[in-house]
């Protein structure tokens, strides 16, 4: 499906190809800014308030004042969705430090730029999603919280991009990043879950993961379905020895994993994944309306 990418830029709605920001924006020069990825279904943004909350927290953590309130940002997102060609899509909402002289001091940037782009996003080829994603464990480590806290959703994704490049070179679909201690942190743009003996396990965010909104929902859905959940540190062996593994994210939604470092998992898509996937779709139906 071809859809024209739309953009809201500092108060103006336009086709994304006509939207420009200055080359001296510190978002471009230094990765100085924050963002959210938001999906919409049936022209309704899914869990928008959670995304806006997280955006505000990321901005506060980097001492960036967003020039719009959450209510104003809600209106921006609604207008953008209205202007988009398709009923379903993905929005990248960004707040950059804004234009300023060279030199990384944010003090010199007077006005943040607020940008929201609506488009389609497929993280992993649809056929491969159905067959199950092939993962590698990357040699690139997730940055520790005393370097850059993983809970800050900043514009700088370079260590995730390096992990993705490694996955590309290995012919895999996605990479898992470990933390500095060699335990599982997360995927390049998704959280990781495994199932062992009917129990759902995921690393706590203190292991180096973003506090994923989809992760939070999946944990809640599992609880609602009487699936035992545990947030616990996981090693690479735990991935290899899992009964099931899957990824969660706004862009990813829920993706079952077929193999990790060429070790095939016994069940893909597994029964726990399938019931959570159905519950996830039902939640979208309930909150965004319509039948998917
Ligand atoms: N980890 C990282 C690094 C991400 O970029 C994302 C995508 N936002 C996620 C996890 C999943 O988070 P969410 O479910 O909130 O999209």
Topology:
Layout (H helix, E strand, L loop, with lengths): L5 E4 L2 E4 L10 H5 L2 E9 L2 E2 L2 H14 L8 H14 L5 E8 L16 E7 L6 H6 L1 E9 L16 H13 L3 E5 L5 E4 L3 E6 L2 E4 L10 H12 L4 E3 L4 H5 L3 E6 L3 E8 L2 E2 L6 H18 L4
The site of 4'-deoxy-4'-aminopyridoxal-5'-phosphate has 14 residues, from helix 6 and strand 13.
Word description of this protein:
This protein has 292 residues and is α+β, with helices and mostly antiparallel strands. It folds into 2 domains: 114 residues, D-amino Acid Aminotransferase, Chain A, domain 1 (2-Layer Sandwich), CATH 3.30.470.10; 163 residues, D-amino Acid Aminotransferase, Chain A, domain 2. The protein contains 8 helices and 15 strands. The strands form 2 sheets. Strands 7, 8, 9, 10, 11, 12, 13, 14 and 15 form a 9-stranded mixed beta sheet that branches. The longest helix has 18 residues. The model has no long low-confidence stretch (mean pLDDT 96). The structure holds 4'-deoxy-4'-aminopyridoxal-5'-phosphate. The site of 4'-deoxy-4'-aminopyridoxal-5'-phosphate has 14 residues, from helix 6 and strand 13.
Care to give the gist of this entry?
Helix content is 30%, strand content 28%. It is of the alpha+beta class. Strand 13 and strand 14 form a beta hairpin.
Question: If you compute it from the alpha carbons, what radius of gyration comes out, rounded to the nearest whole angstrom?
Answer: 19 Å
Q: If helices are DSSP runs of H or I spanning 4 or more residues, what is the number of helices? A: 8
> What class would the helix/strand composition place it in?
alpha+beta
- What is the strand content? 25-35%
Large-scale geometry: globular
